[in-house]
Amino acid sequence: MFRIQRTPYGGRGAFASQAIPEDTLIHTCPGPFAHLVYRAFRKEICAYCFVYAFDSGKSGWGVKIACDGDGSAKGGVWFCKEECRDRWEEEDNVDGMLMSAYDAIDREAKRLGKANEKGKGKDDGKPRSKIQELEKTIPKKGEAITQDLIDQAWKSAEAIAESRNHGEDMVAELHKSDVDVARFISTVLVHRYIEDNHPTPPPSPSTSPSTSKSPSPTPSLQSFSQSLPSSPPTSPSPSLKSFLPLPSPELSGNDWLAFLNLQNNELAHLQSIPAALCQALRVYLFTLQTLPPPLLQYLPGPGSDDPLIKYLPLSVRELQARDAGNSFGIWQQPSGGESEMFGWGIWVSASFFNHSCDPNVHKVRNGRIFEFYTSSDVEEGEELCISYGFIDDDLDVKERREGLKESWYFECECSRCLEEMREKENNRVAVQD
Ligand SMILES: [Zn+2]
Ligand SMILES: [Zn+2]
């Protein structure tokens, strides 16, 4: 029904390969590649289908994996029903890996919290861990941040990891939302673990007509690198030069390589929020000192001796570079002005739809999957676009484009923007005359 191809303005987009009537389901995205439900919401949001207990008149969900001695749910996950729990076990928690990651993160965060509580009042001004020294070298908001500086900071973080003494804390203190980000990262590491250890993906709940073509298997690293096209990637990260873009982007990809093929927004994102670099470095070292061994191999540093894994780019950095500008919020349904955001996630194939301020496609979250419907009749060859937000009529074209630039790192050149800018210019000229 549509194909992915390069757009005249750079990057990729989805284009109708036939005329499509209004209200047609054109694509279904399977569950998120990476996601996070804020810890604060973990009892109220089903960890599988993201349904909000409050909307069913409940204060929290009751289905858990099992209880620890203190009565808390294992992995800190709650479900709206047993079926959701079972599907989560099957799709997300393969070999119990995600639950061990979540549990390890919670335990370690608790331990650090207690140690900090005890250490209060004894502050002698000395940095308590190596990451604190590194953080001092990162610019604050408003100061210049460059690609070199980011590369250097990551090298330093890896050096801290390499030189770690046994049992030493590389991170001694967590900041607000570090635990959430560590949980987010563990969903990606578990995805990579599943890809490597259980190459056949679990059955997708997708019933979309556009996914009826035969699924394309994850290319092996070797066949992948042999079939790389010679055109340069649109926005390469230094470690990724040989990875982008995918030879023929397919919508079926929901794996690490398809994820890496998403636009890399690292520099723009960190220039806008330098503190995010400190957080990524901190969480990288925290996960390294925390996560169970089968997942550690996906983080560089001790444990990743396998040359193939060393060759693969490091997860935390690549995740941050793509999280920015590619993730969608997990909103209360139906989403509207009053909805709450419970977390966010990356649905790889959802990112193939570009933004337009006059979109012809809208997305609907149905549990953990996203469905895309045409909002008007679409002609063959027309680009299929959704809205990334900011399109309310109360913003003028300038405010709207600024909002998009700040949140999504692009200058909107959609037909509505171009037309409204032209109108604005004509008005200005008319006033001057
Ligand atoms: Zn559920
Ligand atoms: Zn626009």
Automatic annotation (TrEMBL):
PANTHER family, per database record: HISTONE-LYSINE N-METHYLTRANSFERASE SMYD, POTENTIAL PROTEIN LYSINE METHYLTRANSFERASE SET6
Pfam family, one: SET
Chain ranges of the SET domain: 1-389
TM region positions: none
GO cellular component labels: nucleus
Disordered: annotated segments: 113-139, 195-243
Compositional bias segments (type: Low complexity): 207-229
Superkingdom of this protein's organism: Eukaryota
Protein name, entry field: SET domain-containing protein
InterPro entries per UniProt: H3K4_H4K5_MeTrfase (IPR050869), SET_dom (IPR001214), SET_dom_sf (IPR046341)
